[in-house]
Amino acid sequence: MLEATGLECVRGECRLFAGIGFRLGGSEMLFVQGHNGSGKTSLLRMLCGLAPAAAGEIRWRGELIGKLGEDYRRELCYLGHQNAIKEELTPLENLLASARLADEALAEAAALAALEAFGLAGREHLPCRYLSQGQKRRVALSRLVHERRALWVLDEPYVALDPAAIELVARLIGAHLQRGGLVALTTHQAVDVDARVVRELRLEATASWRAS
Amino acid sequence: MLKLICAIIARDLRLAMRRRSDLVSALFFFIIVVSLFPLGVGPEPELLRKLAPGVLWVAALLATMLSLPRLFADDHRDGTLEQLALAPQPLGLIVLGKVLAHWLISGLPLALLAPLLGLQFDLPTDALLMLSVSLLIGTPALSGIGAIGAALTLGVRGGGVLLSLLVLPLYIPVLIFGAGAVDATLTGLGAQAHLSLLGALTLAGVFFAPWPTAAALRIALE
What is the distance between the alpha carbons of residues A185 and A199, in angstroms, rounded to a whole number? Predict the structure, then answer.
């Protein structure tokens, strides 16, 4: 379903990686590995269509993602480094607002249940700026509870979480894979995910300075 | 489509209400700048009446500028802008929602407050009314044009000053026809033509500006 060939990433004068390719089908997980600065986040942003690839192409169901545009974004859920939550809004408002912007119907009861699953019961109506770093991450991740879009792109989802929350996220990812969804994720933590097929992609230290 | 725009406006208004200090400081900036002129120029009604349209409109432009840098900067910093860019609707529509919300927060209060401040300049009633009307019609264009500048300077260090240099020259037509409408009422010429042109600028600003803004935002996100 998701297929990439010959991807190349150039940041300034430095080539981070080149010739990266993979195929990812339903119920499969792409595990992107690499040291800091090897271009993991850049690769995931390319997969979302946020950043253009210097070379190579990415196809979703056989079509270039640039051409699909909104049809691709309708099937994509991206969770980046930043939590994309508003400090002034409460966790509940954040969750409902992000669902509305993604054009999804999310009832208030379902949103409350998602927050409760992430241990945020009792804090639904507290502005997010009063929450800890880990709790903010939990608010961001609570989107995944009711997320049914096919492709999840998760950039370091486990950062700042405690072991219980990490296990919960891993369970959600496992359930998504069971439903036939696709997951592309990066992490430095060894976390067991219930996945039948895990495709590992290692971004080696191929960073090279281009001769100018 | 309308639902999305309404959702964006509702979110931005709620955020503005939680951060009322920004809103109030822009309003007070407007009040103080306008009030300084009668104090500086002196109590000559004839001169003040002549100055009033220009002073009030320039102060409105500057007050609008104050809130522009934060139009996209907050969303950019906390990652919300990425999510907006990945939403399954055109980014231009989302920008349109944000422009309308910006006008409700910055332009509308200015237009409602202006007649009160116009009293300091000894403006007659019909000119006060025209001041409010011209601001109501003209300020949406300021939000629209300003959005392009805000998107182009997103993530640039010292972007605030650059934004002013970029956007203020583009505000000149709005200023000319806005102040001109009030001036025409004062001299008894009728402001119909000025208002029509002001309306045209607003329609163009609000409905065409979101698309280049969206393109600039996508470049800023790369």
Answer: 11
pTM for the full predicted model: 0.91
Q: Which residue has the tokens 């009160």?
A: B116
Residue-range domains of chain A with CATH: 28-49+70-200 (3.40.50.300)
Tens-place pLDDT, residues A14-69: 888 888 889 998 899 999 988 888 889 999 999 999 998 888 999 999 889 988 88
Does A85 contact B78 at a Cβ distance shorter than 8 Å? yes
Task: Report CB contact under 8 Å: A101, B4.
Answer: yes
Q: Which amino acid is at B24?
A: V
Tell me the residues of chain B between 65 and 84 that have a Cβ less than 8 Å away from chain A.
77-80, 82-84
- Which helix or strand (DSSP H or E) is residue A209 part of? strand A208-209
Phi, psi of B219 (to 5 degrees): -65, -40
- Name chain B contacts of A82, Cβ cutoff 8 Å: 77-79, 82
Provide the 10 A C-beta neighbour count for residue B17: 11
Q: Report the complex ipTM.
A: 0.89
Q: SS3 of A29, please?
A: strand
Q: Can you give the residue range of the structural domain that contains B172?
A: 2-221
